[in-house]
């Protein structure tokens, strides 16, 4: 791996242990750039997948993981339904950390109540999964804080919440099976995740649980419309958002049951307190060492992002009941204006479901979902932004190789990316000499969150102006953001780098100066996050060295631009054109699946 890769950040987790690189006899390191830079983590995955294998996923020659899971559920349904109730029913929490409107939890509670047996809830803390999936320390802390609150809410219903750390990811399935046996559980429920690792794990669990005479049920919950329900006129999965959203709106309008609220769990028999006393008495484990925050960082993030589904609902209702929802279409692009709901951490952790959000948004008006475009453009725009989360999960399900360090447009793997450590470090630290870029990256490093418009600006700058491998930026976001969600993060970076579904064309390159002038006209956002420029007056705030404020900026220690935008744009266009025009190559020489 490269010796220097990320700038120091208040919320940065400890770096992974360096992997020893075996060099050939001539002394040159022939390890692929994407592996040396950490894009493909060989501790957990093989080398990058070939483009030919991506094509086989595309044409169906290799079955999609979601198809295999659905087939396993369908093939075993009759046998699972014949299994008699045991001594308990289990709900396995993952990214659904809420009691309200939780599909699998509701089903598990009903099963337990129908048979007069207790419901047991559980959550697995998996340090190796956190590392393999680049989960940020901020996100791990947020999840653990959510679990602490949820344990209290469940205890009021006499429902135990068992939280266990399983050090090795390969031990997760055996440990789950051991827990089910210990609790005498014959029925286990969880909500579906759409990443490849999770789909394959659940497929194994369906079959292994059945061998142990346990019915393992995986249900849809994380999306409003489940993958596979929407198709183009040609019967294919949409890869462009606008027609997909039009189809999504039509489907939701014609199938209102998809927004129906799932009942919250009912109380356990009081005897559950005695039966599972050890679980009730146990505390939530601390974050693994690889994802631990300092006390100062944890206190700051706790203040910025209070945990729990009650907080999520409060934020949602405040947003919907004020002018924020009405003005959202305009204000959402202004990073200095508090014009967004800031609910992304809750959507990512599952303390709030997209289903609940859309249902409550529609409850604020008498208009139907299709009619909002003309009657409530702000609300409609917000719902369309929430729906992007569904869209990107549909993409994961249909094009699983995007989970495997491959772009949706896998031919773009052939672009000759830069791997300039100094440029990456400047970008990560917010020291590029482009004020809007630097302000955004410093917000990320301080808050573990960044305004969405700024995410697009910094992503375009990394991929186009610096011509760095976009996957480095994708990984950095996941390692630092509290709302890290693979599907949305991957989709956003694919857009910015022109490598994903519904991307900006490769020849469209954000001009950071114009973006700054348009969306932070008075420089309020820049002055907040780049204090070196607080004394710069007027429009020079957007380009101090090019607009006569160079002496002020230099005296304050603000760096000069690390690249010249016009030159960088021309370089990017030439490199993209060369890359996508090149015959597809067998990149990486191996299979990453």
Automatic annotation (TrEMBL):
Keywords from the UniProt entry: Chromophore, FAD, Flavoprotein
GO process annotations (BP): circadian regulation of gene expression; entrainment of circadian clock by photoperiod; nucleobase-containing compound metabolic process; response to stress
Biased composition (Basic and acidic residues): 17-26
Cofactor note (record): Binds 1 FAD per subunit.
InterPro entries from the UniProt entry: Crypto/Photolyase_FAD-like_sf, Crypto/Photolyase_N_sf, Cryptochr/Photolyase_FAD-bd, Cryptochrome/DNA_photolyase_1, DNA_photolyase_1_CS_C, DNA_photolyase_N, Rossmann-like_a/b/a_fold
Cofactors demanded by this protein: (6R)-5,10-methylene-5,6,7,8-tetrahydrofolate; FAD
Span of the signal peptide: none
Any Pfam family hit: FAD_binding_7
All residue ranges annotated as the Photolyase/cryptochrome alpha/beta domain in the record: 87-224
Stretches the record annotates as Disordered: 1-40
Ligand binding (FAD): 328, 340-344, 382, 385-392, 483-485
Listed GO CC annotations: cytoplasm; nucleus
GO molecular function: deoxyribodipyrimidine photo-lyase activity; DNA binding; FAD binding
PROSITE patterns in the cross-refs: DNA_PHOTOLYASES_1_2 (PS00691), PHR_CRY_ALPHA_BETA (PS51645)
Family, similarity comment: Belongs to the DNA photolyase class-1 family.
Name this protein carries in UniProt: Photolyase/cryptochrome alpha/beta domain-containing protein
Organism: Cryoendolithus antarcticus
């Amino acid at each position: 791996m490269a010796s220097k890769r990320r700038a120091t950040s208040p919320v940065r987790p400890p770096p992974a242990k360096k992997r020893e690189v075996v060099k050939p006899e001539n002394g040159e390191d022939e390890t692929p750039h994407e592996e040396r830079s950490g894009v493909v983590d060989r501790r957990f995955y093989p080398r990058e997948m070939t483009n030919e294998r991506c094509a086989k996923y595309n044409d169906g020659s290799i079955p999609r993981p979601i198809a295999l899971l659905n087939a396993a559920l369908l093939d075993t349904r009759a046998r699972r339904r014949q299994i008699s109730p045991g001594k308990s029913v289990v709900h396995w929490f993952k990214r659904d950390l809420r009691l309200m409107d939780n599909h699998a939890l509701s089903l598990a509670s009903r099963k337990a109540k129908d048979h007069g047996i207790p419901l047991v809830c559980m959550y697995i803390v998996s340090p190796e999964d956190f590392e393999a999936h680049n989960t940020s320390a901020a996100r791990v802390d947020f999840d653990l804080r959510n679990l602490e609150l949820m344990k209290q809410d469940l205890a009021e219903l006499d429902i135990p919440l068992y939280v266990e750390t399983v050090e090795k990811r390969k031990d997760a399935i055996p440990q789950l099976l051991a827990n089910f046996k210990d609790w005498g559980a014959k029925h286990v429920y969880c909500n579906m995740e759409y990443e490849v690792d999770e789909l394959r794990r659940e497929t194994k669990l369906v079959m292994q649980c059945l061998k142990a005479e346990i019915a393992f049920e995986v249900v849809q919950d994380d999306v409003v419309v489940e993958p596979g329900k929407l198709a183009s006129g040609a019967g294919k999965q949409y890869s462009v958002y606008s027609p997909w959203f039009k189809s999504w709106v039509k489907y939701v309008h014609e199938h209102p049951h998809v927004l129906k609220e799932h009942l919250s769990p009912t109380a356990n028999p009081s005897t559950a307190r005695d039966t599972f006393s050890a679980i009730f008495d146990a505390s939530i484990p601390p974050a693994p060492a690889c994802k631990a925050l300092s006390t100062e960082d944890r206190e700051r993030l706790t203040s910025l992002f209070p945990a729990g589904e009650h907080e999520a609902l409060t934020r949602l209702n405040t947003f919907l009941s004020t002018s924020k929802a009405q003005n959202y279409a305009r204000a959402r692009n202004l990073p200095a204006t508090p014009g967004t709901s800031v609910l992304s951490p809750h959507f990512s952790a599952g303390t709030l479901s997209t289903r609940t959000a859309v249902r409550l948004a529609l409850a604020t008006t008498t208009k139907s979902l299709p009619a909002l475009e003309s009657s409530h453009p702000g609300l409609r725009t917000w719902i369309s932004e929430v729906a992007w989360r569904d869209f990107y999960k549909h993409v994961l399900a249909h094009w699983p190789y995007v989970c495997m360090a491959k772009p949706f447009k896998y031919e773009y793997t052939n672009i000759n990316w830069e791997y300039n450590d100094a440029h990456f470090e400047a970008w990560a630290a917010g020291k590029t000499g482009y004020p809007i870029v630097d302000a955004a990256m410093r917000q990320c490093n301080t808050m573990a969150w960044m305004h969405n418009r700024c995410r697009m600006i910094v992503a375009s700058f990394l991929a186009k102006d610096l011509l760095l491998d976009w996957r480095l930026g994708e990984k950095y976001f996941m390692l630092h953001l509290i709302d890290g969600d693979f599907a949305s993060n991957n989709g956003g970076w694919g857009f910015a780098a022109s490598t994903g579904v519904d991307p900006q064309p490769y020849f469209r390159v954000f001009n950071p100066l114009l973006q700054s002038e348009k969306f932070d006209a008075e420089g309020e956002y820049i002055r907040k996050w780049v204090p070196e420029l607080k004394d710069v007056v007027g429009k020079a705030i957007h380009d101090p060295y090019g607009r006569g404020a160079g002496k002020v900026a230099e005296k304050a220690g603000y760096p000069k631009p690390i690249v010249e935008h016009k030159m960088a744009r021309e370089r990017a266009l030439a490199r993209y054109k060369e890359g996508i025009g090149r015959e597809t190559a067998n990149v990486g020489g191996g299979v990453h699946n």
